C-alpha cells in the first residue's frame, strides 16, 4: 500500500514579504557593545546594555578553528612570546647585503 505524503511547498508564503529586506540591518559588532530593549507585560520597556568584559578578546572565525578553548590560545601566545624574546630584534634602517637585493638601480 502506497501512502500519499504531501511534498513541502518550496515557495515562500505570500504573507512573508522580504522585498524591502536589508541584509545585515541588525548586525552589530560585539566589541562595540549593544542594547536590548525588552517589552514587559505591563507596557514598560527594560533596556539591557551588553559589552565585552574587561580583557575579553574576540577571535576571528578562521583562527577559532585552531583553538578550542582559552588555555590553547594562552599556550600558543606564551610560546610566541618566548620565541620573540629569543630572537634579536632587527634594526631598522640597516643596509641589506647584496644577496638580498632584488633588483639593481638603473642609472640614467
Could you characterize what this model shows?
The protein is an alpha+beta fold. The chain has a domain at 30-88. Helices cover 19% and strands 11% of the residues. The chain has two helices and two strands, in the order ββαα. It has helices at residues 61-64, 70-86; strands at residues 34-39, 45-50. The protein has a two-stranded antiparallel sheet. A hairpin with a 5-residue loop joins strand 1 and strand 2. It is extended and about 75 Å long. The protein starts with 33 loop residues before the first strand and ends in a 22-residue tail after the last helix. The relative contact order is 0.06. The model has no long low-confidence stretch (mean pLDDT 78).
Report on the biggest sheet: 2 strands, antiparallel
In terms of DSSP E residues, the strand content is 5-15%
> Strands of the largest sheet, in order across it?
1-2
Give the strand tally: 2
Average pLDDT confidence is 78
Order of helices and strands: EEHH
The parts where pLDDT drops under 50 for at least 5 residues are none
Amino acid at each position: 500500500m502506497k501512502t500519499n505524503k504531501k511534498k513541502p511547498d518550496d515557495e515562500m508564503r505570500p504573507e512573508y514579504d522580504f522585498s524591502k529586506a536589508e541584509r545585515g540591518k541588525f548586525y552589530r559588532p560585539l566589541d562595540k557593545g549593544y542594547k536590548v530593549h525588552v517589552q514587559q507585560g505591563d507596557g514598560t520597556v527594560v533596556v539591557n546594555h551588553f559589552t565585552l568584559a574587561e580583557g575579553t578578546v574576540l577571535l576571528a572565525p578562521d583562527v577559532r578553528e585552531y583553538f578550542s578553548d582559552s588555555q590553547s590560545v594562552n599556550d600558543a601566545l606564551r610560546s610566541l612570546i618566548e620565541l620573540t624574546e629569543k630572537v634579536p630584534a632587527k634594526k631598522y634602517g640597516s643596509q641589506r647585503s647584496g644577496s638580498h637585493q632584488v633588483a639593481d638601480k638603473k642609472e640614467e
